[in-house]
Amino acid sequence: MVEKIRERGEPGVSGWKLVLAYDGTDFHGWQVQPDQVTIQGTLADAIERITGERVLPQGSGRTDAGVHALGQVASFAMAAAIPAANFHRALNRALPASIRVLEAASVAPDFHARHSAVGKRYEYRIFRGEICPPWISRYVYALNWPLDLDAMREAAAVVVGEHDFASFAASDPDLARRSAPNTISDSISDQGEGASTVRTIFSSRWDCVDSDLLVYRVHGSAFLHHMVRNLVGTFLDVGRGHIAATEMKRILEARSRTAAGATAPARGLWLISVEY
Amino acid sequence: MVEKIRERGEPGVSGWKLVLAYDGTDFHGWQVQPDQVTIQGTLADAIERITGERVLPQGSGRTDAGVHALGQVASFAMAAAIPAANFHRALNRALPASIRVLEAASVAPDFHARHSAVGKRYEYRIFRGEICPPWISRYVYALNWPLDLDAMREAAAVVVGEHDFASFAASDPDLARRSAPNTISDSISDQGEGASTVRTIFSSRWDCVDSDLLVYRVHGSAFLHHMVRNLVGTFLDVGRGHIAATEMKRILEARSRTAAGATAPARGLWLISVEY
């Protein structure tokens, strides 16, 4: 019994945009999966409990299990007529405390959280202290070995501009296949087999927020699946001296996942905001 | 096959003191219970994996399920000889990220985390904003209805000094019975049936940390089981106008749990430090 999902443009159907914050630790990522608790599924259930209508909110991009969001954006079309302020309050009552709706607005029917996005910001947070407090450990990668920050900054600067980021795309072909076109944005599978892996990065830098917190901040047009985690893993290999910063250009040009470093753990990654 | 637990004072056995921080959300409280994941049991397992020796660390007091600690203290006697710095590092490797050992020291054999304690500080944290961020919600009670802070401060001041706190002790007799003498400190059952419920509070006050965070800070010689949560629940009833601040004296004098207000949720309570 698959219920019909409303299409934008149907008569009596209006567009909705939600801005979401979540703690991804206890979810199997954004995307609906059978027998798994996901952000998308939990949100759809909450909307259905409030309106009686089944919708499938589209995210600006899929976040992996354990990845957090400060400003994920979701869109969907819905026939139910409900004032935005009431819908907003009802959603935060219906959702678990690990997902909060920061904004809820009715929008033009052609707004789409993924297709309409023109930019995105991510942060990757690294805890540098000796003992990571339990109330922080879900939200950072705790790593207190020595790092050459100058080398990491040099490497981070290399990726600014338009480049083919194939070396930093998810390498698992099963994963790419599972990422069906209508469920994932920041994926090479987004445009089907053989799609472009060229992306534009506007800024890419490492900031020492305080003595215990080192943050990688990246702003780009769009990102491939696992791209930020693969970039950070490679920058950390640079920081540890396993890869020279001067190698970054060669790694990009190799267009091969095996040329780059490891994938950094999900827990440190935050989707900060999406631009339209 | 119950293994023998070492006694302090046995030859070759030395005393140990640990200072612990933990996120209590995913634990069934401090105290070992069959088929439940507890802080005490998780700590005992970690010590056994490191030393091969089974000990039962005694806490300064039992914390309930969901209660957090910034500075819980545990003590135990152990025959294994291991330098404190190595033991400290090994414990943090063996424990889950939700429990951290902040300090590990060998101490005089007569040191006991509970019996040697002379004071304790707790905080109860209330989030006052409209939308509680997911990464804060595990650690606060989110409550954004209006509160009369002046009345709450007046009520909090009444409990300073030596008083019989029977009105604020856990009322569940089953709970009291389960709290066997050697496993719980801050309990009326600590000294057996009919034990004193008189305690001394050195300071008791409400602080506005910022516009979103209201914190109750209390410092006392010792606390009855549920005492801080019952005090906070009563102060919140005062803040909402359900109980007059001038009633606090009468509630204390009633020496009956039914005279006071509700028990505040565990998630907002933090054991800050223990004094020796």
TrEMBL record, chains A, B:
Organism of provenance: Alloacidobacterium dinghuense
Keyword tRNA processing: yes
Phylogenetic placement of the source organism: Bacteria, Pseudomonadati, Acidobacteriota, Terriglobia, Terriglobales
Superkingdom of origin organism: Bacteria
Main enzyme class: isomerase
Domain Pseudouridine synthase I TruA alpha/beta stretches: 21-114, 155-276
Molecular function terms from GO: RNA binding; tRNA pseudouridine(38-40) synthase activity
Alphabetically ordered keywords of this record: Isomerase, tRNA processing
Binding positions (substrate): 122
Stated family: Belongs to the tRNA pseudouridine synthase TruA family.
PANTHER family (UniProt xref): PSEUDOURIDYLATE SYNTHASE, TRNA PSEUDOURIDINE SYNTHASE-LIKE 1
Entry EC number(s): 5.4.99.12
Residues of the active site: 64 (nucleophile)
Function: Formation of pseudouridine at positions 38, 39 and 40 in the anticodon stem and loop of transfer RNAs.
Protein's UniProt name: tRNA pseudouridine synthase A
GO terms, biological process: tRNA pseudouridine synthesis
Subunit composition and interactions: Homodimer.
One Pfam family recorded for the sequence: PseudoU_synth_1
Catalytic activity: uridine(38/39/40) in tRNA = pseudouridine(38/39/40) in tRNA
